[in-house]
Design a protein that fits this description.
Structural class: alpha/beta
Shape: globular
CATH topology of the largest domain: Peroxisomal Thiolase, Chain A, domain 1
Distance between the termini: 51 Å
Strand order of the largest sheet: 1-7-6-4-5
Radius of gyration: 21 Å
Number of domains: 2
CATH architecture of the largest domain: 3-Layer(aba) Sandwich
Number of helices: 12
Helix content: 25-40%
Number of strands: 13
Oligomer: single chain
Largest sheet: 5 strands, mixed
CATH class of the largest domain: Alpha Beta
CATH superfamily of the largest domain: Thiolase/Chalcone synthase
């Protein structure tokens, strides 16, 4: 039996705090006009004290489960794409697993920069096609504001925070994820990176003083790479699915810079309406940008039953990735009845209580005398 990986649910979360271009102009030497013309960004959402990568991922995951009409216990695996996890270890996915109460799920993170979500989606596709998993939650989540140098106007204007999630389920009916293509060029690793905090340059007073724990980017080089990689990845994945660009109804690109998106569109020879763009409201949310955009496109009914949809991204590494999907089976479940919605909320609340109790038990166990 051939198993096809279909999108069964989706959800997103962005922090309440909105930082506008005018707000940034109070911090660094910039202006709304300068940012808009160079990036297309008008505002971005910034994590508050209560927000972390895992809490945003949990919120997006809950929304996706509600949409899919599934319980947390039905998830076989949770894959979180992020470059800004809560910790170096454990994985953010493990925190998400506990927060959702998905006790049967394997959980792990992947780091592929802004391409990370499509890398994770490809893994979900392969796991379902092989029979390893039936239901996978794929999340892109980032808290980039905590790795942003707010004195560097070339980078601080770009980034925002948020999370987007998809529930991917196995079905016999053809459709869903048709093909994926992944690529990397490690020779460009220095073009977009956070220099310190890893094993090469561990955290120290000197590294903190030198602002080595923030994003550093060679913007011109990344632009040249992206404008080549994105259209090539789109063409390759469409061909792999046995389709043409004329068969594609909507392209959702990584929301890094509107000039990059526009350059890629022109190379592909497509009209403006062929690409979905929401960068003006969110900025660059790295691995979260594509799922957030997909959620908005789906909620705005820009994707219909049978639509062919291409997701494409590029990022640190350097990496690039693309996926092509046929939307439709299964469509979101019928509107849930009131008792089910209340029971789902109770399950999530109980999962949070269970996670806190288990942490308390682990803490108490560490302080018990040996032999107890």
């Amino acid at each position: 039996m051939t198993r096809h990986a279909h999108i069964a649910g989706w959800g997103m979360y962005v922090p309440q705090l909105v930082l506008t271009n005018d707000d940034l102009a109070q911090r660094v030497d910039t202006s709304d006009e300068w940012i808009r013309t160079r990036t297309g960004i008008v505002e971005r959402h910034i994590a508050g004290p209560q927000d972390t990568t895992s809490t945003m991922a949990i919120a997006a995951g809950r929304a996706a489960l509600d949409r899919a009409d599934l319980a947390p216990g039905q998830i076989d695996a949770i894959i979180v794409a992020t470059v800004s996890g809560d910790y170096v270890t454990p994985s953010t996915a493990c925190l998400v697993q506990a927060g959702l109460g998905a006790s049967s799920a394997a959980a792990f993170d992947i780091s592929a920069g802004c391409s990370g979500f499509i890398y994770a989606l490809s893994l979900a596709h392969m796991g379902i096609a092989s029979g390893q998993w039936k239901t996978v939650m794929v999340i892109g989540a980032e808290t980039l504001s905590r790795f942003t140098n707010w004195q560097d106007r070339n980078t601080c204007v770009l980034f925002g925070d948020g999370a987007g999630a998809l529930v991917v389920s196995a079905h016999e009916e053809p459709g869903g994820i048709l093909a994926t293509r992944l690529g990397a060029d490690g020779s460009g690793a220095d073009l977009l990176r956070i220099p310190a905090g890893g094993s090469r340059q561990p955290a120290s007073a000197e590294s903190v003083t030198a602002a080595q724990h923030y994003f550093q980017m060679d913007g011109s080089a990344v632009y040249r790479f992206a404008t080549r990689a994105m259209p090539a990845a789109v063409q390759e994945v469409v061909k792999a699915a046995g389709l043409t660009l004329q068969d594609v109804d909507l392209i959702i690109p990584h929301q890094a810079n509107v000039r990059i998106i526009e350059a890629a569109r022109k190379v592909l020879g497509l009209p403006e309406e062929a690409l979905f763009v929401n960068i003006e409201r969110y900025g660059n949310t790295s691995a979260a940008s594509i799922p957030i955009a997909l959620c908005e496109a789906a909620d705005d009914q820009l994707i219909n039953d049978g639509s062919h949809l291409v997701l494409v991204g590029f990022g640190a590494g350097l990496t690039w990735a693309a996926a092509i999907l046929r939307w439709g089976i299964p469509l979101p479940a019928r509107p849930q009845r009131w008792p089910y919605r209340q029971w789902q909320r109770l399950r999530f609340a109980l999962a949070g209580i269970r996670m806190r109790l288990q942490r308390l038990l682990h803490l108490l166990a560490r302080h018990l005398p040996p032999g107890n």
